[in-house]
Amino acid sequence: MSLAHVILGLLQQQERTGYDLKTECFNQCIAHLWQADQAQIYRTLDKLEAQGWIVCTVEIQHDRPNRKVFQITESGKAEFIRWLQTHQPLPILRDPLLAQLHFAAQLPNEAIVHLLEQELEARREKLAECEAVDVPSLDDPIASRDQKMHRLVLELVTQREQTYLNWLQKAIEIIQIQPSDT
Amino acid sequence: MSLAHVILGLLQQQERTGYDLKTECFNQCIAHLWQADQAQIYRTLDKLEAQGWIVCTVEIQHDRPNRKVFQITESGKAEFIRWLQTHQPLPILRDPLLAQLHFAAQLPNEAIVHLLEQELEARREKLAECEAVDVPSLDDPIASRDQKMHRLVLELVTQREQTYLNWLQKAIEIIQIQPSDT
DNA sequence: TGCTACTATAGGACTAATCATATATAGGAC
DNA sequence: GTCCTATATATGATTAGTCCTATAGTAGCA
Q: Which of B120, B149, B159, B176 to mutate to test the interface with A (most CBs of A within 10 A)?
């Protein structure tokens, strides 16, 4: 499971709690590449601990709930490096809009265009989020090796949205010039 | 769940068995837009029948197992049309390669390039599959309304792979000119 | 003769992910 | 005073999807 390895990667950078992982990582820079639910993060931490890939220290707090701080172990690091170099199967993408469009011939043109325009709106928002992320450009000489990797990831995510938007615009134009089926 | 509605759409075209759905639809033209496991198809048919959206007639065969032929009902058709016009939430994409690349700075350039090249190979195969699908072009005057929709779907899937390939090639070039971190 | 593949349905076990809720204290808003 | 948010962990229930196996007759291959 990749989530487990993403968490190992984050704990390799520094020790963190489940709460830290959620609020500082999965809700921030990791959000556009691996969304994860709070409940799933905690359960994955349990599994990683059971595997011996991370260990836990409890920080007692009195005004707030105690913190369970997780640290990666040597075997955890080894497992992470192994995963990092292992080619993973392509993810399976199931896009409901494409499923709808496959059967859309029975709808009037305006209904199809309406559907595509709602998608366009949602995708525009997502592209805006991608473009709002602040990572130095690839030609920037100040960019660290880490930042360059993050930039590459961001560029694919952005280009993917751009491709979707271009296609949506073209699709809308094409549907609009189709003879109406009434 | 979209799988249920894809099945409704297919049963609206003609009555079919679970086996037909798997071998003639989900393994063929639907494959590039909604992969589905045989077990899940049968279980979804059960749910659709319980909902009253499809009905079943058993065709008794003596040399082979009996066939359970499913037909869409009026309420099933209504539900399908409702779904067809309802905007669906954007699917969440979790791409293990992007997760790996996010943490790849600690790997030597050659290891990163190796990972990207394996992905390149897999994505090339997928693009080839997309291009092997035979649907008439959008300007083809003979193309039916249905075929035009299928063409639009195919074009997005193909362009998506093309975008991924272009990015992979660019990424490989960029990694190769990075100073090695030894 | 045994092996595999095709036709056809179905269930058990499991993984990955989501949603809702519970606990407990502190602090700010209205 | 009440409500909401933040901090922090945890569990129950459910959904979506995968993998494996069972059943049972036919047919082709070597």
A: B149
